[in-house]
User: Which sequence fits this backbone?
C-alpha cells in the first residue's frame, strides 16, 4: 500500500470512492468548502438539493432502493441542523445513511463561532453513532468505521462532523491502517441450536400460526427464506407497513398489512392465532394496538437482530437474536411440512366478509377517491419495474392497501418517524439509485408543500420522477382523527395550496390535474410516456376516510369499519 | 422497581460518558448512581451504574448498552457476591461540647476525621451505602453542613471478573445464544 500525503478533504472523498460511493446529495457552505473543492477531482456525482433535509431523505431513498449506504453532505450550523429530521427518519426505519457535515475550525469549537453548532450533541439520540473529526489523520478511520456501523447489524444513520482545518490540513493517507478495530465491536451471535429447536417445536405444535413479516425481511435479504418457511408450514403471513414486498402481494399466503389501518381479516387472524412468528419487526404500537389484549391466545417467537427489541413491547416465548435470513435458513428445516387448511379457510371467510366493504366494490358516485386513483396506478404499472415512494398520512395508508407490491424495495415510506415531506426527496434518491426503474412519489397536498422545492432538484439533475399529489385540501389523516375523536372540530386542518399544475409548470415540469375517475388512466399513461418528471394533481374527495381503523391504544380487533350500503352485519 | 448494578467497560474517549448517560435518559431509566474511573486496562474506563428498573428493563438496558459502539463489556452484577463501596466526605458542625461525641461516633462507624476546625469536623467514610446512610443519620442532629459522595463502585468477589476483553467464555456465551448486535 502506497502512502501519500493528502488533505483531509481528499482523504474523505478517496475513502468514499473506496467504499463504493458514486452519488452524494448535498448543499455547500463555508465550513464544508474545502471538501467541496476537493470533490471536483473525484469520480463522485453530486446532486445539489434545495434544503439539507432533502439531502438526507434522498440518501435514505437511495439506501432503501438498493440496500447500499446513502450519503448526504452539508455545511455546519443550519446546514447540519436541517439534517436532524432526515437522520431521525433513517434511525427509526433502520436505514443506512452517512451524513457528513462541515464544522468550524477546531480552535473555534466551543466559542459560538459563526455557524457553529454542537451537531454531534444534537444528533446523539437520532444516530446509530456519530463522530467529531478534528485531525486529517482521523478521517480515513472514521469514514471506514462509519460505513461499517451504518450498514451492519441493524442498519442506521451515522453522522461525521469534520472541522474545516481537518479538511484543509494534510497527512499521510493509509487505507489499510485505517481498518476499523473497535474493541467493543460485535456482530450478532449465532443463536444456539436448542433455541431454534424450541422455536421449531412451537411452530409444529401450532394450529393457527401467523408470520409477522417486517422491514428486517427486506434488510436481511430474507425474502426467499421467508417464503420457504411460510410454504413449508402453510403459514399465513401478515406484513407491517415496512414489510410490504417481503412476500409478493399475490402470494396466496400473504394476508396483507396488519395494524392500525391493516385489513380487518389480518388483525382478526392475529387476534385468533395460537402462535405469532415475528420476523424482523418490532411490535410497534401502530401494529399491536392495546398490548393487554394483543394476540391473547398466541405464543410468540420473535426473531430480530437487535437484542434490545426482544421483550420490549410484547413478552415472547422464544426470543432469537440473529440475522433473519440465517436464522430462517436454520429454522425452516426443523419445521414440519404441514397443511393448515382449516385455519386458512377460517381467515378466507373473514376476508370475504370484508371484501364487500371495499371501496372498489362500491358504486361509482362520480367522486374521485384516492383509493381509486392509487389502485388505477397499480393496474397501470403492475409488472413494470416500479418503485413507489409515499409520504405520510391517508394516502400512505391507501397506497399500502390498494397498491399491491410484488417485490422487495418497491415501496419506500417513512414508517417509524412518520416524516411528512419525505416522499419527493426520497423519490429523487431512489431514482438516482435505480435510474432504470419507474419511480412514483405519492404524496398528500400537505406533505408535498413541505419539500416541493426539491422539484427544482429533479429538473436540474434530470431525474424523471412522477409525482402523484393526492390533493384533498385537508391535512387528511389529522382531519380523520378530528372526525372520529374530536367531534369534527377541524382545527388547523383545512389546507390551501397553490395551483399545483401551474407550480409544476413554473419548475418546467409537465403537469396535469385530474378530478374525475375517467381522467385517471389517461393522465397516468401520459405521465409514463413522458420522459421527464411529471406532476399529477389528483383532486380527490375532501373528507374521505381510511378504513378500517384501530383507534390508537384500542384492541386490535376493535376496528372502525367502512360503513357499507350493501351489507350491515351484527358486528356494526 | 429494584436497583440493578452494572459494571460497564467503555473506551476512554471524549463523549462516551455522555452516550451512556444519554441512553439511560432517553430510554427512561432512572440513574441511582454512576461512578466512572480508570480500569485495569489502559484505554478503558470502568463505570459502575446503578439504575432503577425491573428484570426486563435490566436485560434491555444491557442490550442497549451493547449497541453503543464504545462499550466493550457490560456485566449485570446485581445479586452476585460483590463488594460494593461508596465514599463520602461529611462536614459536620462541631464545638467543644460535641466534638468528643462525634469522635466516638466516627470510631463506631469506622470512619476517619480528616479535618478539624474550631467549629467543624470533616469525616471520611468508605463503606456500603447503608453504613454511610447510617452515619449520616446519627450526624444530622449535630448539623451536617456539607456532604459529597462518590457513588457506588462494585467488584465481584473471588477470582470472577468482569473482564474487559471478549473472553473465550464470552465467545461460548455467544454460542449459547446470549448474543448482542450493534
Assistant:
Amino acid at each position: 500500500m502506497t502512502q501519500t500525503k493528502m488533505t483531509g478533504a481528499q482523504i474523505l472523498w478517496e475513502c468514499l470512492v473506496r467504499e463504493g460511493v458514486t452519488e452524494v446529495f448535498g448543499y455547500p457552505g463555508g465550513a464544508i468548502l474545502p471538501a467541496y473543492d476537493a470533490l471536483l477531482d473525484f469520480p463522485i456525482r453530486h446532486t445539489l438539493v434545495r434544503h439539507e433535509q432533502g439531502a438526507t431523505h434522498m440518501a435514505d431513498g437511495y439506501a432503501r432502493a438498493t440496500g447500499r449506504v446513502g450519503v448526504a453532505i452539508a455545511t455546519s450550523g443550519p446546514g447540519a441542523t436541517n439534517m436532524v429530521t432526515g437522520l431521525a427518519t433513517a434511525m427509526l426505519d433502520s436505514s443506512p445513511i452517512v451524513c457528513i457535515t462541515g464544522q468550524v475550525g477546531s480552535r473555534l469549537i466551543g466559542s459560538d463561532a459563526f455557524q457553529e453548532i454542537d451537531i454531534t450533541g444534537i444528533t446523539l439520540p437520532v444516530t446509530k453513532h456519530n463522530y467529531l473529526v478534528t485531525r486529517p489523520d482521523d478521517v480515513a478511520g472514521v469514514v471506514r468505521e462509519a460505513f461499517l456501523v451504518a450498514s451492519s447489524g441493524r442498519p442506521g444513520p451515522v453522522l461525521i462532523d469534520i472541522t474545516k482545518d481537518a479538511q484543509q490540513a494534510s497527512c499521510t493517507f493509509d487505507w489499510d491502517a485505517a481498518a476499523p478495530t473497535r474493541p467493543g465491536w460485535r456482530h450478532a451471535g449465532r443463536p444456539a441450536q436448542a433455541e431454534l429447536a424450541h422455536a421449531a417445536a412451537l411452530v409444529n405444535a401450532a394450529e393457527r400460526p401467523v408470520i409477522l413479516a417486517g422491514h428486517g425481511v427486506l434488510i436481511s435479504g430474507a425474502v426467499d427464506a421467508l417464503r420457504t418457511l411460510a410454504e413449508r408450514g402453510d403459514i399465513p403471513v401478515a406484513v407491517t407497513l415496512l414489510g410490504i414486498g417481503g412476500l409478493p402481494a399475490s402470494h396466496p399466503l400473504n394476508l396483507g398489512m396488519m395494524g392500525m389501518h391493516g385489513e380487518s381479516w389480518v388483525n382478526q387472524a392475529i387476534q385468533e392465532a395460537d402462535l405469532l412468528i415475528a420476523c424482523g419487526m418490532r411490535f410497534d404500537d401502530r401494529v399491536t394496538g392495546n398490548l393487554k389484549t394483543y394476540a391473547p391466545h398466541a405464543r410468540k417467537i420473535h426473531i430480530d437482530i437487535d437484542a434490545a427489541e426482544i421483550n420490549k413491547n410484547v413478552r415472547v416465548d422464544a426470543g432469537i437474536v440473529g440475522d433473519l435470513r440465517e436464522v430462517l435458513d436454520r429454522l425452516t428445516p426443523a419445521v414440519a411440512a404441514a397443511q393448515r387448511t382449516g385455519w386458512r379457510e377460517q381467515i378466507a371467510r373473514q376476508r370475504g366478509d370484508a371484501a364487500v366493504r371495499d371501496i372498489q366494490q362500491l358504486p361509482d358516485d362520480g367522486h374521485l377517491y384516492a383509493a381509486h386513483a392509487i389502485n388505477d396506478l397499480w393496474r397501470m404499472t403492475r409488472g413494470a419495474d416500479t418503485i413507489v415512494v409515499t409520504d405520510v398520512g391517508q394516502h400512505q395508508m391507501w397506497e399500502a392497501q390498494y397498491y399491491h407490491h410484488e417485490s422487495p424495495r418497491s415501496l419506500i415510506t417513512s414508517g417509524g418517524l412518520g416524516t411528512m415531506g419525505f416522499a419527493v426527496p426520497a423519490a429523487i434518491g431512489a431514482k438516482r439509485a435505480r435510474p432504470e426503474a419507474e419511480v412514483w412519489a405519492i404524496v398528500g397536498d400537505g406533505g408535498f408543500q413541505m419539500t416541493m422545492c426539491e422539484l427544482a432538484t429533479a429538473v436540474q439533475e434530470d431525474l424523471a420522477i412522477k409525482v402523484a399529489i393526492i390533493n384533498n385540501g385537508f391535512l387528511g389523516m389529522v382531519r380523520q382523527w378530528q372526525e372520529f375523536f374530536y367531534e369534527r372540530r377541524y382545527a388547523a386542518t383545512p389546507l390551501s395550496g397553490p395551483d399545483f399544475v401551474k407550480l409544476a409548470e413554473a419548475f418546467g415540469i409537465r403537469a396535469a390535474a385530474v378530478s374525475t375517475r375517467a381522467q385517471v388512466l389517461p393522465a397516468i399513461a401520459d405521465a409514463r410516456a413522458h420522459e421527464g418528471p411529471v406532476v399529477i394533481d389528483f383532486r380527490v374527495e375532501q373528507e374521505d376516510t381510511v378504513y378500517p381503523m384501530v383507534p390508537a391504544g384500542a384492541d386490535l380487533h376493535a376496528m372502525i369499519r367502512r360503513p357499507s350500503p350493501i351489507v350491515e352485519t351484527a358486528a356494526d | 422497581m429494584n436497583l440493578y448494578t452494572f459494571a460497564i467497560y467503555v473506551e476512554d474517549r471524549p463523549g462516551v460518558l455522555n452516550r451512556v448517560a444519554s441512553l439511560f435518559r432517553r430510554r427512561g431509566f432512572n440513574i441511582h448512581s454512576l461512578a466512572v474511573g480508570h480500569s485495569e486496562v489502559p484505554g478503558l474506563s470502568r463505570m459502575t451504574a446503578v439504575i432503577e428498573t425491573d428484570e426486563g428493563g435490566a436485560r434491555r438496558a444491557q442490550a442497549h448498552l451493547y449497541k453503543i459502539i464504545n462499550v466493550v463489556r457490560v456485566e449485570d452484577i446485581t445479586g452476585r457476591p460483590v463488594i460494593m463501596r461508596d465514599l463520602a466526605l461529611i462536614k459536620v458542625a462541631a464545638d467543644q461540647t460535641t466534638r468528643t461525641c462525634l469522635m466516638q461516633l466516627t470510631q463506631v462507624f469506622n470512619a476517619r476525621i480528616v479535618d478539624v476546625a474550631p467549629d467543624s469536623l470533616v469525616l471520611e467514610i468508605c463503606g456500603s451505602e447503608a453504613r454511610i446512610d447510617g452515619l449520616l443519620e446519627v450526624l444530622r442532629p449535630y448539623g451536617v453542613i456539607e456532604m459529597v459522595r462518590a457513588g457506588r463502585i462494585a467488584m465481584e468477589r473471588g477470582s470472577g471478573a468482569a473482564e474487559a476483553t471478549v473472553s473465550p467464555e464470552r465467545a461460548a456465551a455467544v454460542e449459547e445464544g446470549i448474543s448482542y448486535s450493534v
Summary: Chain A has three domains: 4-178, 193-353, 360-539.
